[in-house]
Amino acid sequence: MEAIRRELCDFIEDHDIKYSQIAKELRVDKSSMTKFKKDGTIGFRALVVMAHLLFPKDPDSKISSWCIQLDDTSKEMVKQAFEYAAITRNTKLLEHLINEHKGKSHLKSYVSMYRTILNYMDMKISIKEMIQEMNEFKASKDKELHILAGIYKCYGNYSLGEYFLVISEAMEIGRSINKMNDKRELFIKECYIHRFAEMIAPTYLKLNNLKGAAHYANIILQANISPKLKADATYLLGMTKLLHNPDESIKYFEKSYSLMRLTGVDYLINDSYNKLVMAKAYQYRSDTQKLSKYLETLEEVVYLEEGDSFYECLKIYEKGGVDNLLEGHRKFLYKSNFFISALIASDLLSTGIHPYLLETLSSYKHNKKEMFYFEEDFIECFSDRSDFFSSRTA
């Protein structure tokens, strides 16, 4: 920590920044900064905030360099470094931390957990293998490992189409996260809330709970962890507007594509472009010729999951005919994809189906009380603070 303390103190003093200004941004008293200046005592979350505050052009690189400099005398700091690397999808940093701290008995369970997470991100283990390993971690008496294992099990169950299983397990997970301490455990709590949102927002969309999906998509968006995650959240918001506010929906898809381009990852950019094209194609679902022309412009993407349900929906519209629409509705209803089945049902009125039956067909959704455990703006440690230098006073 001495090298980190020296680097930060030199930067603060070289730029004539008052320690009281830093304390204000960190929401701590001045004595905390005095102690940091003296002996380097500081929490991991404060380092994350200061990186965004003092190095706004590339805070992630700065935090990564600090993570590498951490020794294992503080178990909490290393644990939080593991989580930072994992939630930001920095696989190189995560692999480095695992190799650096393997063999250390007090970190053994965390090294093992994050090795499984890394193997899953690198696609070295299957979804079912990941779930099996998380079942073992879920038996841990360590509260944080227990919660994290539950979240990853839900990730896996979502990928397997087990949406109601995700909802049932998420209730316990959400309550457990909510009980975490808002001071001592704040960084981990913020990360777990974000993970909870990543898990529950798309699940709510599948189950046609648009209010719930939008709430948790906004949590991801406001958290500001990465362009990729913000793009994913913006896409979800676009989907929630698709049927009832198509113009606003397209704006969300365009914004999502713009954010995804910042990643520089070709297959992610192509996938986001395809989603924008499909959203525009949906507006011409009653015109099979125009619809087909849009679908012809889709970029080739190697999908990591099973077929895209929205694409399958559009192919049903391309076929046309009441029988195909009814069969498509039945197919998605059977898969518990109530959102897509409701989209199809909304277009069956013009086919002569009785309005009462139509209302029944389009009303399937998850009706239980939403799990609004967390405020949309709760996560603050990754917030953009690039205006700090321009707004501060000497």
Would you kindly provide a written description of the structure presented here, covering whatever features stand out?
The structure is a single chain. The protein has 394 residues and is mainly alpha-helical. Helices cover 69% and strands 0% of the residues. It has helices at 2-14, 19-26, 30-39, 44-54, 59-69, 75-87, 91-101, 108-121, 127-138, 143-159, 163-178, 186-206, 210-223, 227-241, 246-261, 266-282, 288-295, 309-319, 322-334, 338-345, 355-362, 388-391. Helix 12 (186-206) runs antiparallel to helix 13 (210-223), helix 13 runs antiparallel to helix 14 and helix 15 runs antiparallel to helix 16. The longest helix has 21 residues, at 186-206. The model is unreliable at 302-306 (pLDDT under 50).
